[in-house]
Specification:
The protein is of the alpha/beta class and 265 residues long. The chain is built from eight helices and 15 strands. The radius of gyration is 18 Å and the shape is globular.
Length: 265
């Protein structure tokens, strides 16, 4: 019996258009209404995950920043919040600023964006997201973390900080439309955070399922009894999954929920 389902966002619950399909939404809501805990488990920051959580009417804790930040969506209670020391965070932000990398920096509950997209209207952004060409100047206290996109950016960041801060930070790398790295306080990973949430909700790991598409999701598969890879997942993830669903363009999350949790596939 499945009592908890952990869902990655990018490449999994979110389709290629960065939206939740109607079929996936209906399946998530059906599982929720059956009493199954739905846990969003993403490399992105709390605000963007909270938006999806609210759209689906979820009340379970949200796992963000690849396991470094776990927070309940209604009352704001934090189960876990690992941070990057201020000076180290400024070092990372300065390197990203100097190179103009696509960067999302979260500090003090606000995510600063440097993005190649030209169609974003700052006036329409939620209050916890802001466009900013320079990020280092906004770091006056420990940062929740960074999400940085681009193969060159990932290589440079790991080469500069990976070994130096190996015992202080976590650097999980994902591959979707682009290669990206999430940089957080460590040790942190999606699996350890999922274990924490299962314990908090009183759900045995044997009754948990995880669905994902990228290398960081393998940590979820190690913890949950059932691991489902998306059809668009990289081969290394598919090889270590218990099952492979259709892709995120084909509502693979709905397939996984029906197959393993609702019993009506």
């Amino acid at each position: 019996m499945i009592r908890l389902i952990a869902l990655d966002l990018d490449g999994t619950l979110l389709g290629p258009n960065m939206r939740v399909s109607e079929e996936d939404s209906d399946a998530v809501i059906a599982a929720r209404d059956k009493g199954i805990h739905i846990v969003l488990n993403t490399a992105r920051w709390y605000g963007v995950a909270q938006y999806t959580s609210r759209r689906l009417g979820l009340t379970t804790p949200i796992i963000c920043m690849s396991g470094a930040h776990v927070q309940e969506p209604d009352n704001g209670h934090e189960l876990l919040h690992l941070t990057i020391p201020t000076e180290i965070a400024r070092e990372i932000a300065t390197l990203c600023d100097e190179n103009g990398y696509e960067t999302y920096t979260t500090v003090n509950g606000v995510t600063y964006m440097r993005t190649p997209r030209a169609d974003i209207d700052p006036a329409r952004l939620p209050k916890d997201m802001r466009l900013a060409n320079e990020h280092a100047e906004h770091i006056s206290q420990p940062a929740t973390g960074f999400v940085v996109f681009g193969e060159e950016a990932v290589k440079t960041l790991l080469g500069t900080f990976g070994e130096r801060y190996a015992e202080t930070l976590a650097f999980p790398i994902g591959v979707g439309d682009q290669t990206y790295v999430t940089i957080t306080g460590g040790p942190a990973d999606k699996g350890t955070a999922l274990r924490l949430v299962c314990e908090y909700l009183g759900v045995p790991l044997e009754e948990a399922m995880a669905v994902g598409d990228a290398e960081p999701d393998l940590d979820m598969f190690e913890v949950a009894a059932t691991g489902v890879a998306m059809g668009n997942a990289v081969d290394s993830v598919k090889e270590r999954a218990d099952a492979v669903a259709p892709s995120n363009a084909e509502s693979g999350v709905a397939w996984a929920i029906r197959e393993f949790a609702l019993g009506d596939a």
